[in-house]
């Protein structure tokens, strides 16, 4: 799997989300990201769904490395988005793709909580929901690389949800986009940001409030050794729990837990 040119990727990242200064986005302790070698970067997913591209820009600027976003399959099925996502370094978020990139010594970036974490949180609070989500830990164990937690502070401060989005989500993702039963839990809430005007696909098209975003990079976590009789899945679940605990510690120190 080829690696995009950093300049081309920076341009794509800026097009996907140009609001770095608008959100006064900053990163703390980027030195925890290694200058070489593979690692799995994990973070909390929030209402600013495209803030991932701001974090990727900050990582590229501070460490000179492009972290490869494990993007939702949807973005590679819709018209117009596959090219720019690929230019930004994103790949279809499968375990096979993640392992291949890690074997090449690249950084892999994923949100274990997914959309469930987005819609389970409250405005103004950092939210984690990683129950049963240990695929990232399994990949890290198999590749023999560390997991690096990054907490995004303020990622739930930009949009106010006015509806649950369940009905619009079913209409949008399963009706209009025809994405199938795998997207049954995806929602499309009416939301308002800087302008008090709820729009369809608000999370993508609305201008969010100018909330400050700060990304705190935690220390790398090495995969644990298995105990006698422990299966690979059990080991991965234990490692995922350690990563989640590290994330919660960062939130308690720097953020506002939900």
Question: How would you characterize the overall build of this protein?
Answer:
- With 258 residues, the chain is of the alpha/beta class.
- The protein folds into 2 domains: 6-156 and 211-254, Glycerol-3-phosphate (1)-acyltransferase (3-Layer(aba) Sandwich); 159-207, no CATH class.
- The protein is 36% helix and 13% strand.
- It has helices at residues 6-16, 52-63, 81-87, 95-103, 114-120, 135-143, 166-176, 202-205, 232-254; strands at residues 26-28, 39-43, 68-71, 91-92, 107-110, 147-153, 160-161, 191-192, 214-217.
- The longest helix has 23 residues, at 232-254.
- The chain is globular.
- The mean pLDDT is 94.
Shape label = globular
Strand order of the largest sheet: 1-9-6-2-5-3-4
What is the correct CATH architecture of the largest domain? Answer: 3-Layer(aba) Sandwich
What is the class of the largest domain in the CATH system? Answer: Alpha Beta
Enter the CATH topology name of the largest domain.
Glycerol-3-phosphate (1)-acyltransferase
Fraction of residues in helix: 25-40%
Radius of gyration: 18 Å
Mean pLDDT: 94
Q: What's the CATH H-level homologous superfamily of the largest domain?
A: Glycerol-3-phosphate (1)-acyltransferase
Secondary-structure content class: alpha/beta
Summarize the structure.
This protein has helices at residues 6-16, 52-63, 81-87, 95-103, 114-120, 135-143, 166-176, 202-205, 232-254, and strands at 26-28, 39-43, 68-71, 91-92, 107-110, 147-153, 160-161, 191-192, 214-217. It is of the alpha/beta class and 258 residues long.
């Amino acid at each position: 799997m080829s690696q995009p040119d950093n300049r081309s990727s920076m341009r794509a990242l800026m097009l996907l989300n140009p609001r770095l200064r608008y959100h006064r986005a900053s990163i703390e302790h980027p030195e925890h990201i290694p200058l070489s070698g593979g690692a799995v970067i994990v973070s909390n997913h929030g209402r600013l769904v495209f803030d991932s591209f701001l974090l990727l820009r900050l990582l590229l600027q501070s460490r000179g490395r492009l972290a490869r976003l494990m993007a939702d399959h949807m973005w590679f099925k819709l018209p117009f988005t596959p090219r720019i996502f690929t230019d930004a370094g994103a790949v279809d978020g499968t375990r096979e793709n993640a392992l291949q990139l890690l074997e090449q010594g690249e950084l892999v970036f994923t949100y274990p909580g997914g959309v469930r974490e987005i819609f389970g949180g409250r405005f103004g609070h950092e939210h984690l929901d990683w129950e049963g989500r240990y695929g990232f830990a399994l990949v890290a164990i198999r590749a023999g690389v560390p997991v690096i937690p990054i907490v995004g502070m303020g990622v739930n401060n930009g949009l106010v949800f006015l509806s649950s989005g369940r009905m619009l989500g079913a209409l949008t993702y399963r009706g209009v986009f025809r994405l199938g039963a795998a997207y049954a839990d995806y929602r499309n809430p009416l939301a308002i940001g800087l302008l008090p005007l709820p729009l369809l696909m608000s999370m993508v098209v609305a201008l969010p409030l100018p909330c400050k975003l700060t990304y705190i990079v935690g220390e790398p976590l090495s995969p644990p050794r298995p105990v006698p009789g422990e299966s690979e899945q059990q080991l991965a679940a234990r490692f995922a729990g350690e990563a989640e605990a590290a994330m919660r510690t960062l939130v308690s120190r720097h953020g506002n837990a939900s």
